[in-house]
Amino acid sequence: MNKIEINQLNLWYGQFQALHDIVLDIPENEVTAFIGPSGCGKSTLIKSLNRMNDLVDHCQVKGEVLFNGTDIYRMSDPVSALRKKIGMVFQQPNPFPKSIYDNVAYGPRTHGIKDRKTLDTIVEKSLRGAAVWEEVKDILNKSALSVSGGQQQRICIARALAVQPEVLLMDEPTSALDPISTAKIEELIINLKKNYTIVMVTHNMQQASRISDQTAFFYNGRIIETDRTERLFTRPAKQQTADYVSGRFG
Ligand SMILES: Nc1ncnc2c1ncn2[C@@H]1O[C@H](COP(=O)(O)OP(=O)(O)OP(=O)(O)O)[C@@H](O)[C@H]1O
């Protein structure tokens, strides 16, 4: 089943067209990776999936993004309800300057949960889900900024999980991390797909081939080719994809 279906999506920043005729199905409980050279539209598309581009002036979108069958650009629910269901994790770990506990409890609190016991349960479950509980369970009242970058990124993932999303968008989630933290996040992503649908942008082709099920190759604002990851890397249909995945450009 497809969690998200993108149909003929075009996007402009002012006069500049950043996405052209994007068509892509994102299957449920899989990892979909976006690869391609710098500036080809990967971040723009991932941000379009929970309407983060609404925050950019002069950004115009045409086409459809169906989430569970409903077009997110024509829905009646507020955008905050969409972002609860489709969470986002960024390249730089960006915890709030608050305690680890308050970072993870932030989303549930904004959605009206006040009861301490309920919050305790959500915080523990989310930190466990993000594979960082054992490392931080005794320092929940310490600032989230005081732990390592890899731990901060997993706390940010826990913060996203705390509001029970269905989809996690990850824009280069490991590019600011060392190899050991990267390996932990990769293992975590593979585990998370049992319960969530994951879309990630990565510059690291080994990473895409290690953890994604489906890969889309972007060039100049277009998707050139989408396929099962193994096939896209070993038997791409398009010459441009073959040149990119073999390192001939980009
Ligand atoms: N807010 C914006 N206003 C105007 N142009 C933008 C804006 N954001 C991105 N662009 C342009 O849109 C194009 C696509 O950018 P985008 O960040 O989506 O590419 P990307 O593939 O994610 O690149 P990278 O791999 O370097 O992060 C680029 O030409 C970029 O300069």
Walk me through what this model shows:
By secondary structure, this protein is of the alpha/beta class. It has a single domain, classed as Rossmann fold (3-Layer(aba) Sandwich). Helix content is 36%, strand content 27%. It has ten helices and ten strands. It has a six-stranded mixed sheet, with helices on both faces. A four-stranded antiparallel sheet has the order 2-1-4-5, with helices on one face. Strand 9 (214-219) and strand 10 (222-228) form a beta hairpin. Helix 6 runs parallel beside helix 7. The longest helix has 14 residues, at 116-129. It is globular, with a radius of gyration of 18 Å. The model has no long low-confidence stretch (mean pLDDT 95). Bound molecules: adenosine-5'-triphosphate. Adenosine-5'-triphosphate (ATP) is lined by residues 13, 16, 18, 36, 38-44, 56. It comes from Pisciglobus halotolerans. Keywords: ATP-binding, Nucleotide-binding, Phosphate transport, Transport.
Gyration radius over CA: 18 Å
The shape, in one word, is: globular
- Name the CATH superfamily classification: P-loop containing nucleotide triphosphate hydrolases
**Helical percent range?**
25-40%
| β-strand number | 10
Query: What count of helical segments does DSSP give?
Result: 10
* Sheet with most strands: strand arrangement: 6-7-8-3-9-10
How far the N terminus sits from the C terminus, by CA atoms, comes to 33 Å
- How many individual domains? 1
Instruction: Give the averaged pLDDT, no decimals.
Output: 95
Flag low-confidence runs. Answer: none
The secondary structure category is alpha/beta
The name CATH uses for the topology is Rossmann fold
The biggest sheet, with number of strands, parallel, antiparallel or mixed sense and barrel status, is: 6 strands, mixed
What is the string of helix and strand elements? EEEHEEHEHHHHEHEHEEHH
